[in-house]
Design a protein that fits this description.
Helix content: 25-40%
Radius of gyration: 23 Å
Shape: globular
Order of helices and strands: HHHEEEEEEEEEEH
Largest sheet: 10 strands, antiparallel
Distance between the termini: 38 Å
Number of helices: 4
Length: 297
């Protein structure tokens, strides 16, 4: 009896989980060696006060070797996590397009899923001096970048009264027309909420978080005007950065534009790195969105 797609996907996930389990043990082992090397260096520096520079260089070199080994082990584990997420995402997309699929996810469940997605977004761990890649933190995508099926994006669509940026998911990309098909993240079962949009109407969300301790340049700085997902909604609005993340687990503290307040901005609200993107001004957007909407399917 042939294996079903679900069974094959489950087997692939189990294989990677087994490998991930081994990688985690390897990380702990290499971390112990790294910490010991650093402790030896600190002890020597305190006792000898750097009198033997050759000895210092040797200890520094050993610490760097162990640090690189730990970093490589972490990256190996992260790669397995990426693969597991991709397998599950592909199966979810296939199930969504199946005629037999009648699943309906409640709004509250979606909000929890979005929060979990932001918390588990991979953290960029690079070598000393390594340049932060595109779509890490505040670093935008390359000019010719095309998002993958299943990736989440901010999409400019025509609403009931005005255009709005919504959280959406890529369904497909047409290389001939350079247009995306995206689904409203909350209404993926409803084909009426599928939009065909040009690339300028779609902004990919970050694929990795940036650490303020190692790559502060990859984060939006205080006072920067951005677009961000308003808490407990799936719409992006303009906001000012009030406080960037201080550690790799922190959110941005934002002041959303809100004319109902005397200052014109809301009280500070926290938003995860994944849902804070560059502010994009729309010029002549009404006609463009109408043009895009004419080709919706």
């Amino acid at each position: 009896m042939p294996f079903t797609a679900d069974a094959i996907a489950a087997q692939q996930v189990q294989e990677r989980l087994k490998s991930l389990f081994g990688s985690i043990h390897d990380i702990e082992k290499k971390r112990g060696s790294c910490e010991q090397s650093i402790a030896n260096l600190q002890k020597y520096s305190a006792e000898e006060k750097g009198q033997n520079s050759q000895k210092s260089k040797s200890l520094i070199k050993a610490a760097m070797v162990h640090t690189d080994a730990e970093r490589e082990a972490i990256q190996k584990a992260l790669q397995k996590i990426y693969e597991i997420r991709q397998i599950k995402n592909e199966r979810r997309i296939q199930a969504r397009t199946s005629a037999a699929n009648k699943e309906s996810i409640r709004r509250g469940t979606w909000m929890k899923m979005l929060q979990t997605s932001a918390q588990t977004l991979p953290l960029f761990v690079g070598k000393v001096g390594e340049k932060v890649p595109p779509l890490c933190g505040a670093v935008p995508q390359d000019k010719n970048y095309v998002g993958k099926v299943g990736d989440m994006v901010a999409a400019l669509v025509k609403g009931r009264e005005e255009e709005m940026w919504i959280l959406a998911e890529i369904v497909s990309y047409n290389t001939r027309t350079s247009k995306y098909k995206v689904d409203d993240i909350l209404k993926e079962q409803n084909q009426k909420d599928r939009h065909t949009l040009s690339k300028r109407r779609v902004i990919p969300l970050p694929l990795m978080r940036a650490s303020p301790e190692t790559n502060p340049e990859a984060l939006f700085q205080k006072g920067t005007l951005v677009m961000a997902l308003f808490p407990q909604t799936t719409c992006f609005y303009k906001a000012l950065i009030n406080k960037p993340p201080q550690t790799h687990v922190d959110d941005y503290e934002l002041l959303f534009e809100d004319p109902s307040y005397p200052e014109g901005f809301s009280p500070p609200l926290n938003v995860a790195q994944r849902y804070v993107i560059q502010c994009k001004e729309e010029k002549g957007s009404s006609s463009s969105v109408q043009e895009d909407s004419d080709s919706d399917s």
